[in-house]
Amino acid sequence: MVSLSGDEASEQIAKNTPPETKVHLALRPCYPTIMWLSFIVSLILSVPCHSLFVLVPLYLYPHADASAWSNLTAAIAGNTEVQWQIIVNPNSGPHTYPPDVNYIAAVSKLNSYPNVVTVGYIATGYTNVPYDSVTSQIDLYAQWASYPSADISIDGIFFDEVSNTAAEDVYTYYRQVAAYAKDTMPSNVTPVVFNPGASAPAQLFEYADTVVQYENAFSSYRDKETINAFQPGFNDQTSIIVYNTPNNADVNTLVRSMVEEGIQSVYFGADCCYHVFSSELLTLLASAVSGA
User: Are 66 and 105 in contact (CB under 8 A)?
Assistant: First the structure.
């Protein structure tokens, strides 16, 4: 019998061991390693893998001292465990630089909350708005970060009136405007949101962080039946925006269903045009998101 050294014996075992067995041999750790790996696994499992946030269409003029936004800012300040993404919309887009004094004060207040991310509204007219017009609006929002007297910076872009037609020219348009936003907005994290308001082609999810697959009235929302009609496989990038929500709506149950289905973000609004911010409904929504 030939005597082998330790290294030679290990090599010989490796040569004559089936691949699946080799994996088990290679991964067989000592007991301290097992204990350490168990700790790491338990730590990972203790961290939530999905966190629903609130996406708010803020299409209301703030007025002096941001008084028109007071119910919203109170909900933000009172629910710091909830993440809020706020769509800022001065005039169906950025309008001017700098914005007027009321917008400066109001956006600065939004940016003072650590649980807020802001995105600037731009309508694309289902690709009918020329590319140069869209990029010039992105440039204006990007310029807000240079305002010297207050932090009115905008983090990302919310593209409204997004076409959900499955066509190469549509994909090219939205790929280009999304890329321009990512390259231009002076933010460490630049969220890009598409709003077709209905089920979207899978291709659009490649260009955006969030896609609104439902924007419609509360009376038309059918809980999991609605969610099951979405483009499959992208719930973790999907937002649901529900308007005309009655005060007696069971928001808690609906939000729980969204979490179960892995939906990324949600908003329940009191009116059709996002000009009414009901304190009661905002509190209900924040509580549901926090509890879920």
Answer: yes
